[in-house]
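Write out the 3D structure for:
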Amino acid sequence: MRGGSPVATGPEQVFTEDLRAVAERVRGLLEAEVPESEEELPAREAAAEQIGRAAREERAKVLGAGVRGLEKLAAGRADDIDEDEYFGVEAIVLLEGRPAILVQGQDFASQQGDWALLDGQRPGIRQSIARVGRVEVSGHAGLDWLGTGFLVSPFAVMTNRHVAAEFAHADGRGGFVFRQGMGARIDTAEELGAPAGDGSFEFDVTEVLGIHQDVDMALLRVSPASGGGGPLPSPLALAADAPPDLVGRPVYVVGYPAADGRRNEPAAMSRIFMDVYNVKRLQPGTATAFLPDEDGAGAGAGVRAGAGFTMTHDCSTLGGNSGSPVFDLADHRVLGLHFGGRFGSANYAVPLFELTDDPLLERAEVNWV
């Protein structure tokens, strides 16, 4: 693939089924779309519906080109694929092969194709979803949320150092404090269409336990939100050892992907995703590599986890996924802490099983399993 997709893996590696079958399934979905209603709408609603129709038409056009591209790939005619078809194939890889599935009501819709297997793991995935939240801030000059965090002990949430650094700094005595006039909380219920809650899914950040100096990680003490917060759920299980077959292993990320203008053709990609960002999603994929830090997580990448090794994956993460957990789909243990990515190259995570003796994690009493 030669575009700007966040999924570095090509369609031949992403899909286990024949590419012709993928093309046929996508074509069937396009043909099955329900026609628009002929009912006359009020002016304001009619304008919104016209915009929505244009977005759907653009999406259908892009996916239709992708179907043609997949058929050419299946026939061994990769050299005949034009730019529109390449872009369409990337869109199908994102939507079908490496989807970013909306989470609503702490649950997710059943998937077709390769990811139909998520249904069999639904109870474990739902447990994971409930322990991941959006890191929200007050008092910041330009932002009201910063990234993702997840519960790793009876009282601690893990996120990235570069997320926590937006609202906390060193106090000069070996500890960390909030920046002047700022506060933070974790909201585990920021979902598309979710009504305003009673605070039962929110937790206040009461202390910065530590910002790691070598790893892109921070640990935050949390407590039930004042004025209605419920008790903290039990923490996620962090993998104390690496699976023997890590590379190629199915994984998933839970987090809050945000719009990212660095993507190629941002307007068209925006239409594909219907401009739905900043809400909780389930993002399945595979672990793609486990590399020594001195290799820079890939030749010339200049990316280091700081844990001695870097784990890479091909889940379709975007900005806002910073601080997301990377779960093993088989047992739902957290394998890694996502900290960034390069479009067309890889997404990067700190392999947490390399840090079982780390003093900061010991102080936070993380739940190693």
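The mean pLDDT is 86.
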